[in-house]
Prior knowledge:
The structure holds two protein chains of two kinds.
Chain A: H1 2-24, H2 28-37, E1 42-48, H3 52-65, E2 70-76, H4 78-86, E3 93-95, H5 99-102, E4 115-126, E5 147-150, H6 155-167, E6 175-177, H7 180-188, E7 194-198, H8 199-204, E8 210-212, E9 221-228, H9 233-243, H10 245-253
Chain B: H1 3-33, H2 39-43, H3 46-79, H4 85-92, H5 94-97, H6 100-111, H7 118-125, H8 133-157, H9 161-169, H10 174-185, H11 187-203, H12 206-211, H13 222-232, H14 234-258
Protein name (chain B): Molybdenum transport system permease
Function (chain B): Part of the binding-protein-dependent transport system for molybdenum; probably responsible for the translocation of the substrate across the membrane.
Transmembrane segments (chain B): 12-34, 54-78, 90-111, 131-152, 180-199, 236-255
Amino acid sequence: xxxxxxxxxxxxxxxxxxxxxxxxxxxxxxxxxxxxxxxxxxxxxxxxxxxxxxxxxxxxxxxxxxxxxxxxxxxxxxxxxxxxxxxxxxxxxxxxxxxxxxxxxxxxxxxxxxxxxxxxxxxxxxxxxxxxxxxxxxxxxxxxxxxxxxxxxxxxxxxxxxxxxxxxxxxxxxxxxxxxxxxxxxxxxxxxxxxxxxxxxxxxxxxxxxxxxxxxxxxxxxxxxxxxxxxxxxxxxxxxxxxxxxxxxxxxxxxxxxx
Amino acid sequence: xxxxxxxxxxxxxxxxxxxxxxxxxxxxxxxxxxxxxxxxxxxxxxxxxxxxxxxxxxxxxxxxxxxxxxxxxxxxxxxxxxxxxxxxxxxxxxxxxxxxxxxxxxxxxxxxxxxxxxxxxxxxxxxxxxxxxxxxxxxxxxxxxxxxxxxxxxxxxxxxxxxxxxxxxxxxxxxxxxxxxxxxxxxxxxxxxxxxxxxxxxxxxxxxxxxxxxxxxxxxxxxxxxxxxxxxxxxxxxxxxxxxxxxxxxxxxxxxxxxxx
Lengths: 259, 261
């Protein structure tokens, strides 16, 4: 039974990953307080959902070079992260999708100047069997299409809205998902015919979804700012690691663009 | 009360007071942080009315379904002596302890387009459930029904068996006994169970966002509206939270004075 296999395989993994990223955001305080007890050997990163896979690789490199150091990562929509940090969520490094997401971050929370970590562009994600036969952005307004995008409050949702503006279309949306990985999982599960995600999410899905290119002249480029939000020396070291040739290689491998 | 009596009770009173403060302080903080001067403006935000209307609609349908399905189920569980009854009771109450988001995943696996029943539904009837208001109602029934069944079954089990027996000797069949004797006698239990189930349905978040997604006016219920608004317009989120708090307190208060003594 092929459909059942698809469900129990990658699609389910994605759904669980997306839901865990929601759940993890509430566990931040616990993670940080344990770090403080062990003598500041934990560095906590709150990052945009689209960085989920690549940051794990960068964190592994960093931990290998810094014995005894643990990198705690939590992923959510960038706007959620900014709001959490403003409310006092313990964190050392913040990496966000899009400069616009950075604006509401209070000046008092900014310990280092934001630098551009990387860039990303949008892509359409469709299930592997592409049931609605989506071949390009011109199909987004097809009748009965089940389109999912991020909610307009989060960066991938803002970018999708900008894309629709540039294309001069106002497509029917089935659901506004809380972050980009939730959007991706609805496509990976086959519940949606198409989702607007970052091109790196399609690459990270590793076959669970297929990508459909958006013409470069219409596409939206998001640059990802990263900055320290605590005085921990590990925070600056980790940002250096992200900007190093090795870190940038991981980002390039994941499909991100040069800063 | 003597001084000695008060001192002796302190080990009980202190933790109890901390317990009350732990619950009441966050509720008070919601009131403190609200922007009262501009509350009317925040309440006029589209997300507030839209999501409250949807929550009112979906929880009303949910309650009708819960009454129709849950009342006979509670009665059968209360009176059946079949060995499988205990298993049935345990299975029906799983959603009480299940994380709601897991319920959402389970509903997707069942009713999603590639789900166990959803694939068949789409290919034969052309019906797809995820991202619809119907999916919201299904998520709410899934989490609320067990609260109702457990509560009503408790009252029904407390009902003296002689009532059913007398009804039977007077010629009433099982259905008529249930309708004319049992239900009227356990109305307080039904009201209490309904209040619990309704509150659970109103607060439902995890299963809804997983199974039904979030679309304003279609699947974005009040809790999802609070979550979405918190990102962009925290005061609208607080205003919406205040309305939900008020509605919950009023409904529970009304039921308590009437039924839950």
